[in-house]
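We emphasize that the prediction below concerns an isolated chain of 267 residues; any contacts that depend on oligomerization or on bound cofactors are therefore not represented. The input was used exactly as deposited, without trimming of termini.
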Amino acid sequence: MHKVYFIVVLALLTLWGCEWRLKSGGGEQQPGDVVVERYDRIQSLYLTTGDFSALQQLNTEYPMQTRALIEDVLKIGRVNDPEINTKFLKFYQDIALQSLINEVEQQYANMDDINKGLTEAFARLRKEVPEIGIPQIYTQIGALDQSIVVGNGTLGISLDKYLGASYPLYLKYYPKAQREQMERSMIVPDCMVFYILSQYPMPHDKEMTQEECDIHMGKIMWVVNKITQKHTFKGQYVAIVDRYMKRNKGESVATLLRNNDYKAIAR
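Result of the prediction step, given as a token string:
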């Protein structure tokens, strides 16, 4: 299971002179559209060229994301460390990480399909659970650590964890079952799973058995299958929740997410 934190990934963009800015998306946005912020592009520009303007933009426009990346994900120091910018730059000079940056830049030059998938999934989720909000979603390059990181109203996608099951570096370090989850097609389902989990976490007021934890995750995966209209997540506990919902056709998705009577669900 992935951890819940933050992270992001790549892409270079250079405009004439110094009057450049890296912004997310393209074309006209409609109300309710989800457009992923391309923090990774600014990150990539700094990490491959050392461009000071890119560093300034990371720190001024994305301070929360930059702090989370440096302190919580990479764990290379504190953002107020006088040497942190040099440490940040040097950390990514590893050949494997530079290769990751380049690969992300190529594979994710366009993310229209991800924006569309997230827009549709959040629209269906909010129809089922009107009170749920939409986080600020961004991409990053996270040195093969967490895939999706959630916190403080943000959701970070580490694109370096979604380069495809056959990506050479993955073949060296990950088993086949895990590599199969490291595909572009898993970004939207993973985002929805970890965001919903952050809104409906496991109860902290009692000790959970392993089965109860599995049923809780089964609930969330069942909901994600429903709102993405795909059977991405399968397995015993998703099937248990499916049988429960067929027995209780009047129960809403919102009620299911709040329902922590795991014995009743497993009956």
